[in-house]
Amino acid sequence: MATETATTAEVAGNTEDTPAVTYAARVEHVSKSFPAPGTSGGQQLVLDDITLDVAPGEFVTLLGASGCGKSTLLNLVAGLDRPTAGSIGTDGRPALMFQEHALFPWLTAGKNVELALRLRGVAKAERRQEAERLLDLVRLQGAYGKRVHELSGGMRQRVALARALAQESRLLLMDEPFAALDAITRDVLHDELTRIWRETGLSVLFVTHNVREAVRLAQRVVLLSSRPGRIARQWTVGLPHPRRLEDTAVAELSVEITEELRGEIRRHGRH
Amino acid sequence: MAGTDNGVDVETGIKSGITGDSAPAVAKPQDANDLAGLEAGLDALDSVHVARTSLRETLLRKTLPPVIAVALVLVLWQLLVWAEVAPEYKLASPSDVWGEAREAWFQGTLLDYIWTSVSRGLLGFLMALAIGTPLGLLVARVGFVRAAIGPILSGLQSLPSVAWVPPAVIWLGLNDSMMYAVILLGAVPSVANGLVAGIDQIPPLFLRAGRTLGATGLREAWHIVMPGALPGYLAGLKQGWAFSWRSLMAAEIIASSPDLGVGLGQLLENGRNNSSMAQVFLAILLILLVGIAIDLLIFSPLERRVLRGRGLLVTR
Ligand SMILES: Nc1ncnc2c1ncn2[C@@H]1O[C@H](COP(=O)(O)OP(=O)(O)OP(=O)(O)O)[C@@H](O)[C@H]1O
Ligand SMILES: [Mg+2]
C-alpha cells in the first residue's frame, strides 16, 4: 500500500535517478484545461487539483463517468500531454495500453513485441527469445508469426499487453483496455492481468467506467467526479485473490461504489 | 494512504465485512489450467483464417479476361484494315507492325530501343525516389516547410512535365542530364505528395503508441511513420513512375539528337520522319507495354503484398 513516508524534500527533484523512489507515479495538484469549443480563448477545466500516488507494486483503478477526464489524466501520467498546473512524477517511463489494441498492422505479433524491446535497447540476439517469453506470459505461444488482423480481439489485447510488458516499465497505465471485448473474454483477461501483476510486481493504474471491473481488479479504487474531474472518494479493496465477478463481496462493494457514482452524476442534473 | 493532503474527501480502509475473512462460498478458485484451456478455446473460436487462392484460379480469373480483351482489339484492328477505313500509310496493319518488330528483333535493335528508355526511366525514377522521399517527410513533419512549399508541390503535380523540356534543353543541352531533369521534375512531386498523403492518414493512435514505446525523432520516422505511411507512399510511387515514363517519352520525342542513342521516343519520332506508320505503331505499343509491364511486375505485387500483410486486401 501507499506509504506516507516520502517527504516533500525527497520528492522535489522528481528525477528518475533519485535512488529511493517511494512511488510509481505521483500526481500533485494537477489541473488540466482545454480550449473550450465554440468560445474564443475560453477554457474548459477538465481536471481540477488532482493529487494521487500509486505506490510501487500497487494496483489502482480510476473510475468515473464517461467524459470525466480519465483518459486525460492517464495521458498526462504517460507524458503524452502536459498539465496546465501541478506536477507529475513517475518512476521511469510508464508503459501505456489503449482501449484499442494499437498494434502496428505492418508487423507480426512477435515483431510488435520486438519493436518495443528494440526501442528499449535490447540487443538483437536476445530480442526473439525475449519476445517469445513475453508471448508465453500472456499465453500466446503460437502467435509469434501471426499478423494482427489474423488475431481475435482478446488475442490482440494480450499481444498489446505483452508489448507493454516488453518496455520493462515499473508502471503500467491501462486505458479501458478490455472495454471492447465480450464478457467472457474480458473475464478471462481479468484473471490473466491479475496473475501477471502478481508475478511481475508491476504497479498498475487502470482506467475504467465499469465498477465491477474496478473492484475485481484493484487494491484501491479511485472515484473521479465529472466536470471538472476531482477525486471524489477512494476505497481500499482488501479482498483476496483470485476474485470472481460473481463474488458477493465484489458485488456488495460494487453496489456501494455505484451508488456513490450515481450520486456524483445526479449532482450535475441539479444545476 | 496516499493523497490525504489534497483536501478532497478520502475514504481509507474498507468495512471489515467486505475484506478477506468473509470470502464467499461461491465456487471460486479457478485453477490455472482451466483458465489456459478456456483461453485456448476462445482463441480458436475467434481467429481469422486467411485462405489463399490457387494458381489455376488466379490464371482463370486474372489472366484470361485481359487476354480476351487484347484479342478482341486485335480482331477489331484487323477488321478496320480490311475495311480500308484509311489508306495504308495512315493505318498500318497488325501484321505490318509485327513484321517491323521482327525485323528490329533480328537486327538486334529492338531490345536496345527498350533498354535505352527503360534504363533512363528507372534510373531517373530512383533519383526521384531519393529526392522525393526526404522531401515528403520534411513537408509532412515540419510545419514551416509544409506551409512554405506544400501548395507548390501539389501544384507542380498538375503541371505537365513536357513544359519543362524546352527550358531543360536550353539550360542543360541535348544530353542525358536534360532527360533526367525532366523526369525528376515530373516524378518528385508525385513521390513527395504520396508520402505526405500517406503520413497524414496514419491513425494518431499509432503515433501515440510509438511515442509511449520510446520512438522519437528519426527512430519514430523509421519505425512508425514510414511503415505507417507505406500504402499512400506506394500509391505515390506508382504515380511517380507513370509521370517519369511520360515525361521521359515527351523529352525523347522532342529532343532527339544522334548522340543521345535511340530510345522508344526517338523510335516514334524517326517513324514519323520516315513516314513509316508501322514503326510509329510499334513505338507506341512498346511504350504502352513497358508502362504496363513495370506496373505489373513491380508495383502491383508490392502493393498487394503490403495490403495483404495488413489485412486490407479484400479478395473477391
Ligand atoms: N485534446 C482535447 N481537446 C479538447 N478537449 C478535450 C481534449 N481531450 C479531451 N477533451 C475533453 O476533456 C473531457 C474529458 O475527456 P477524456 O477523454 O479524458 O474523458 P474520459 O473520462 O476518458 O471519457 P471516456 O470514458 O468516454 O473515455 C471531455 O469533455 C473532452 O471533450
Ligand atoms: Mg477515455
From TrEMBL, chain A:
Keyword terms: ATP-binding, Nucleotide-binding, Transport
Chain ranges of the ABC transporter domain: 25-253
Pfam families: ABC_tran (PF00005)
GO terms of molecular function: ATP binding; ATP hydrolysis activity
Signal peptide span: none
Source organism superkingdom: Bacteria
CDD domains referenced in this protein's UniProt entry, alphabetically: ABC_NrtD_SsuB_transporters
PROSITE patterns: ABC_TRANSPORTER_1 (PS00211), ABC_TRANSPORTER_2 (PS50893)
Protein name: ABC transporter ATP-binding protein
Lineage: Bacteria, Bacillati, Actinomycetota, Actinomycetes, Kitasatosporales
From TrEMBL, chain B:
Top-level taxon: Bacteria
Localization of this protein: Cell membrane
Keyword Transmembrane: yes
Gene Ontology biological-process annotations: transmembrane transport
Pfam families in the cross-refs: BPD_transp_1 (PF00528)
Domain ABC transmembrane type-1: 114-298
This protein's UniProt keywords: Cell membrane, Membrane, Transmembrane, Transmembrane helix, Transport
Entry's Gene Ontology cellular component terms: plasma membrane
Transmembrane segments: 64-83, 121-140, 152-172, 178-199, 280-300
Membrane topology type: Multi-pass membrane protein
UniProt xrefs under PANTHER family: ALKANE SULFONATE ABC TRANSPORTER-RELATED, MEMBRANE SUBUNIT, TRANSPORT SYSTEM INTEGRAL MEMBRANE PROTEIN
Family label: Belongs to the binding-protein-dependent transport system permease family.
Name of this chain's protein: Sulfate ABC transporter permease
